Amino acid sequence: MKGKSWVSWLLAGMLILGSIPATASSPAAAVPVSAFVLTRGTAQKEVRALQAVALASRQAQDAYDEWQNSMGRAKDIDTEKQTFINPFTGTTETILFNDETQMRLRMQKFLQPDQMKFSWQMAAKSFDLTVNSLENTMDSLLLGLYAAQNDLNAKSRSRKLAAEALTRAKASLTAGKVTLLDVDVAALDLEKADKALSASQRAFENQCRNYNRFAGAPLSRRLSVSLDLNSTVLYLSTDEYVAQALQNRMTLFSLREGILLKERYLEMLAFRDLNKLVPDIASEYAGAKLDLDKARLDLTAGLRSVTAEIQSAAIVLESAQVDLKAVQLSLQRQKVKLET
Hints:
340 residues; mainly alpha; two-stranded parallel ribbon; two-stranded antiparallel ribbon; 9 helices; 4 strands
């Protein structure tokens, strides 16, 4: 009894002198209760409301309207003649166009609407590219925010455990079961946990500000992320990924459609052999032929480049799948150890 009383008085004196740190006050909650719950669905809505998306949508709509207007104007073009009423005689007269004028009018009637359609298709794909690019950035920010939130929760839990360990160490010191050194070690662990929690809190706040800046929201808006990471992803074969990329890549689409328009342009220039009879048109034809050959070479090189890019990405994906299986096996082993 006397020993226990002596230890109690010693502990009280050391607390007064500050030899044993008191339990630090708990920092703020890991994720604020009043935070805006951010899911991928709500994030997509915020992306669709961005000014860049609205601008790309408006440009696509303007290009579509221009295409429709060009088709309406093309219907009224007569490529062979012009008919008018003579104001002096009141009779209907007709003027036949020469071959070169007919060729130019044929371009306005048949080629120009297709060119305007191509402009609309590119604007529409540019809109899709803008949305996809922003959503890719959104996904990266969401994953970073989700990881920071999980880290913050883990650090908060570690800090709580460290505080409980210090409380137990003090109680054990009072009971004479541990030494003052054990209490100091527990106090140091709590101090480290406090610093780690503060650093994690700052990292989470920085991630919140980064996302809010991207979404055009107030930087001070507090966020809480809720993501469904258990959805099943359907993985395709490498050949299927390559086929999709070759079909959907905007650069390849532009080259393919551009080649078709260049071929039609050459056909228009060859109207009634004008590309052989008129020097200026012959020079224009030769330049267009070089442009067509270059576009075909660019398309071949683009097909090879995209194929190699997708094949390399497929290797990275397969490697990530192997790493994921290794992590899952490690987690299962840890669960077995925890149960035992």
